[in-house]
């Protein structure tokens, strides 16, 4: 099951109806979309075989919600379609894989879903998901699809009793440098494992995890990075840091910093696994280009230090190029090769879905949990892509605070406020969100790197220009089991 979206493109070529296997001209498909006033960007859910039958009611709900202006397209894409599709997959799994409709959901299904998800996500995230569910089930009962709402409620305010409305204190969900390094190498890259249990694309998975851990990117932001956004190491000197802008959550644009060590790790994946996957996928990519399902761009150009994606007469700033565009954007190279703009690709030649990255982290957790290694993540930390963002925030905040203490009384002290700096690095809309990391950073007392490059070196490895073994030992001292990780509310 996949979440896709309407995209007209150029009205050329043909498309095959997966249900009847009839061939339709793409222009007639576009005419149908226009006649029913269906906008580009509207999400809809399809089964793996391309059919819509089992998702018909869910797609009707999404279209009706947009037509009645209940939610905007961005909210429908990023929240409602995504969470409802995940619930439908869960319900079908509980029904033995049968292609049931979302209206088959029972209270028992929702309770089981809650119990499974609350071990993986924060209570606020789970509340967001159940908010999407509540909207669908209310609509389904109103139009007669369901006899009753499966969400149990109480009182005159119809309070959802499946979700706790109290905040929970949690232990700090971050990894220290040595723990992060071990998870990246042994978990995601599979170092030291039998080839039968190793990941299929170890350098890709490692590069993805490393970018999360050294930039603070969110899972989706990192998954849809463009290849052009991460430079080749040959274009950087040993002391330089590459900077580019990335549009994130709540339309906040922030600067992302890439060090030479990270660029080198990404380039190893780029020159090996990515190159092989793109070449092997040429037939599938060419078919998608012919059917008009991909976004073919002319080139990536640079003007006055800023990069743009050129599509005909359009010049779209790379920073504002949407994730939906990044997922399907390709360009034709001079030798005729179809090259995806995305950095991370799968066997299809296009980026893996977000659920695939979740599964890769699940596999990585299973690899490291059985080792008993002293640097494996602590039992209370359920490592997900977002854990890498937490870890980056705590390490950077602690490093900046340590640097600030050494500059006490300096003339630029107020300009280098660590909390405000990390707020900008993470793209938080409110400083209150960043303050959640402050207690963890204050209680993390080991000697931490003083700058971003040093932090990255702890994860990737050291070069001849790095400090000597005594300094390295001091930086790794915090990996001991005796160092406390105190509780913090995320």
User: What is the average per-residue confidence, as pLDDT, rounded to a whole number?
Assistant: 81
Helix run count? 18
How much strand?
5-15%
Number of strands: 16
| Spans where pLDDT lies below 50 across 5 or more residues | 14-21, 411-415, 445-450, 464-490
Q: Compute the number of structural domains.
A: 3
Overall 3D geometry? globular
Share in helix: 40-55%
Could you provide a short overview of the structure?
The chain has about 500 residues and is α+β, with helices and mostly antiparallel strands.
Explain what you see:
- The protein has helices spanning 26-35, 56-67, 73-94, 107-117, 123-142, 177-188, 202-215, 219-223, 260-280, 282-291, 323-328, 354-369, 385-406, 418-426, 431-435, 438-443, 452-460, 469-476; strands at residues 2-5, 14-16, 23-25, 43-46, 153-154, 159-160, 170-171, 242-247, 253-258, 295-297, 299-303, 306-311, 314-317, 329-332, 338-340, 487-488.
- The chain is of the alpha+beta class and 490 residues long.
- The strands form seven sheets. It has a three-stranded mixed sheet. Strands 11-12-13 form a three-stranded antiparallel sheet, with no helix packed on it.
- A hairpin with a 5-residue loop joins strand 14 and strand 15.
- Helix 3 (73-94) crosses helix 5 (123-142), helix 7 (202-215) packs antiparallel against helix 9 and helix 9 (260-280) crosses helix 17 (452-460).
């Amino acid at each position: 099951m996949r979440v896709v979206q309407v995209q007209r493109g150029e009205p050329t070529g043909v498309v095959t109806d997966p249900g009847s296997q009839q061939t339709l001209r793409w222009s007639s498909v576009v005419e149908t979309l226009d006649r029913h006033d269906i906008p580009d960007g509207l999400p809809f859910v399809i089964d793996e075989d391309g059919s819509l039958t089992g998702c018909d009611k869910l797609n009707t709900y999404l279209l009706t919600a947009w037509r009645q202006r209940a939610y905007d397209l961005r909210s429908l894409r990023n929240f409602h379609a995504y969470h409802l599709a995940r619930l439908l997959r869960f319900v079908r799994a509980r029904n033995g894989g049968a292609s049931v409709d979302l209206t088959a959901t029972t209270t028992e299904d929702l309770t089981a879903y809650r119990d499974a998800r609350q071990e993986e996500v924060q209570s606020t995230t789970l509340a967001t998901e159940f908010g999407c569910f509540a909207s669908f089930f209310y609509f389904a009962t109103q139009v007669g699809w369901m006899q009753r709402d499966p969400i149990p409620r109480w009182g005159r305010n119809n309070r959802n009793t499946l979700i706790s409305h109290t905040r929970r204190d949690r232990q700090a969900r971050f990894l220290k440098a040595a723990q992060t390094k071990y998870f990246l190498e042994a978990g995601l890259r599979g170092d030291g494992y039998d080839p039968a249990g190793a990941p299929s694309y170890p350098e890709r998975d490692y590069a993805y995890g490393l970018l999360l851990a050294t930039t603070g990117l969110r899972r989706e932001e990192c998954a849809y990075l463009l290849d052009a956004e991460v430079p080749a190491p040959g274009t950087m000197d040993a002391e330089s840091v590459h900077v580019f802008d990335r549009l994130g959550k709540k339309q906040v644009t922030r600067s992302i910093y890439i060090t030479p060590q990270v660029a080198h790790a990404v380039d190893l994946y780029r020159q090996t696994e990515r190159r092989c996957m793109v070449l092997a996928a040429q037939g599938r990519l060419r078919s998608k280009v012919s059917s008009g399902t991909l976004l073919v761009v002319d080139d990536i150009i640079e003007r006055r230090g800023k990069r743009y994606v050129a599509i005909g007469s359009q010049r779209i700033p790379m920073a504002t190029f949407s994730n939906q565009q990044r997922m399907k954007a390709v360009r034709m190279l001079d030798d005729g090769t179809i090259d995806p703009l995305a950095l991370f690709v799968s066997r299809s030649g296009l980026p893996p879905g977000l659920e695939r990255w979740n599964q890769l982290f699940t596999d990585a957790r299973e690899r490291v949990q059985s080792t008993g290694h002293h640097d494996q993540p602590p039992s209370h930390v359920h490592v997900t892509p977002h854990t890498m963002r937490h870890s980056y925030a705590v390490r950077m905040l602690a490093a900046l605070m340590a640097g600030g203490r050494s500059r006490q009384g300096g003339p630029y002290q107020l300009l280098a406020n660590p909390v405000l700096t990390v707020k900008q690095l993470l793209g938080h809309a409110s400083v209150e969100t960043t303050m959640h990391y402050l207690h963890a950073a204050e209680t993390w007392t080991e000697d931490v790197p003083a700058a971003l490059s040093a932090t990255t070196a702890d994860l990737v490895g050291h070069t001849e220009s790095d400090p000597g073994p005594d300094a390295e030992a001091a930086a790794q001292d915090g990996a001991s089991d005796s160092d406390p990780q105190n509780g913090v509310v995320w």
